[in-house]
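Reading a protein record of the kind used here takes little practice once its layout is understood. An example of such a record is reproduced below.
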Amino acid sequence: MEHEHIAEDFARLRADEFGYLDAGGHVYLDHTGAGLPPRSLVTGSAQRITGGLFGNPHSESPASRSSGRLLAEARQAVLRHFRADPAEYTVVFTSNATGALRLVGEAYPFTRGSRLVMSLDNHNSVNGLREYARARGASVAYVPVGGPGLRLDEQRLGGALTARRHDPRRGRDDARGLLAYPAQSNFTGVRHPLDWISRAQALGYDVLLDAAAFVPTHPLDLGRVHPDFTVVSWYKVFGHPTGVGSLIARREALARLHRPWFSGGTIHAASAQAQWHVLAADETAFEDGTVNFLAIPDVTAGLAWIDGIGVHRVRAHVAALTDRLLGGLAELRHSDGSLLVRVYGPGAGEPDRGGTVALNVLGADGRVVDERIVNHDSAARGISLRTGCFCNPGAGEAAFALPLPRLRAAAHGRPGSLEDYLEVLGLPSAGAVRVSLGVSSQPGDVDAFLRLLRETYRDGTPAPDGLPARAGC
């Protein structure tokens, strides 16, 4: 009965807030890429901006004080949403989750005796942290994923966290470092255990949690788990505004970061001639220049909107639709009984999976259908989805079972294009097809995608003739 009530409520929400989808004949299946803006948030934002006076917050004018008050309210709203104790956590506003990751990477105190441990399943914005670590002599270790659900190998994770690297300057082994992993994969939708946070911290690690794909459909309680750094992009949660993310950092962890530069808005004072500066003592030391003071208050409104719906109800709604999708995909067959699709990640009804589903379409001959064909055919039916590697090469390498020697050979060959790279790797496709569900999704969206696969590819083997060149990851 509760499921029926949730379904009815989300059907009304679709009509009220996202009616433009059905009015335009759109099927939107890329919520991991971006959430959709509810009508009420967009109109409310316009009314707020045109109904008041807001200025650069780095001043004491009436317009500046108005902006400063709304910025403080937004910080409080973020902490409240994640049940984070303001005495333990603070909020740094950034342009997106990638910007938050860059802040940590450039300022984290990597040394020759420290380690960066990462899951193979990571967005490229997390993978990029290894360049900061390498530049300062830290070691980098990847923990593999495997099995049918492409979950992380917990035994290998424990081994990576307990490994030591000798620091000759200190004359001892030092395990201090950083563990960086996603709460939910943006490739397979698998949800990785949050109890790794306390396990890593007990071994002397700071923990960076990429929550960008997780928090749109799942609650995150920072009063229960305590990552040192958590990154999010708000447009993925409620669609509006774009260009605003957050680094939610434990205050003691933020104090350990050492910024390599300073800028306007980050300092108390500076001298050009004497060449000294004093960074701000709070989170503003990490907010370069003038923050987006017109858009950040929309985060407060967006959090009130999603909290009014109930993140637990969003989770139940998306879980039901995901089971519907996975169940439908499992039933798709060619007339000879062979599979029409290959799904990567956990199956229907399995625990710890979100509403992101990666797959490849298989032709009647069993070969992978070029993802550009699926993108072309879905677009022709008004279906928006994602194809490629989704900026997560590690998960893709595991999904396609690419051996390390072949990957190294591809790097040494320095392919001139993505097509050359695929040829070296022996891959027929540049990636997969990703369907991701969210707060605005309805059963009809799932059915439209299943109908596309059944009507377009059953018993066929389409050729990639005349398709555009592939873009890189």
